[in-house]
Design a protein that fits this description.
Alpha-Beta Plaits, alpha+beta, 162 residues, five-stranded antiparallel beta sheet, elongated
Length: 162
């Protein structure tokens, strides 16, 4: 508790110093407290700046724009990076690609990293880059793929901006 009281006293002196350009607090003490409590230092400094700004005009309030038309995310067209974590057995890639095709998601490239030895118990990553597709189509496909028995964990989807 003593350290916190001392900190606020030194912080007040430091803030007054910033405005009055006078202080007996050594620089190394100011830096030590600023490094130990950076968030508190910033908050107190901002509050004191507001207090010293009595005569200046106040800042305009934040304005909410209610009349903006927000586009449906499902209509967004983009390329996607998909990472599937799957069980390693025949037909898995076929199941995934069939569902993507059913939802009109075209595959640009596909990569499955080879494991050192064929072992059905170890999961593998299947990486797919898509051509430009609708977000809604991709999300529908992923929602259908994730519950498959061959999928070990939820699919990672990254939108690729161009």
């Amino acid at each position: 508790m003593k350290a916190i009281k001392l900190f606020f006293i030194l912080l007040l002196i430091t803030s007054i110093n910033a405005h009055a350009q006078k202080s007996n607090v050594p620089e190394n003490v100011k830096k030590a407290f600023a490094q130990k409590f950076p968030t508190a230092t910033a908050v107190i400094s901002n509050l004191l700046d507001l207090a010293y700004r009595k005569e200046s005009p106040s800042l305009p309030p934040f304005i909410y724009y209610h009349n903006l038309n927000i586009r449906d995310m499902g209509l967004l067209r983009s390329r996607y990076y998909l990472r599937f974590t799957t069980k390693d057995y025949p037909g898995v890639l076929g199941q995934i690609c069939t569902i993507l095709g059913k939802h009109q998601v075209s595959i640009s490239s596909c990569h499955q990293k080879e494991t050192l030895s064929y072992h059905k118990a170890l999961p593998v990553h299947v990486i797919i880059m898509t051509h430009e597709s609708l977000e809604s189509s991709l999300q529908s496909a992923v929602a259908e793929i994730d519950p498959l028995d061959c999928i070990v964990e939820p699919t990672h989807v990254i939108r690729v901006l161009q």
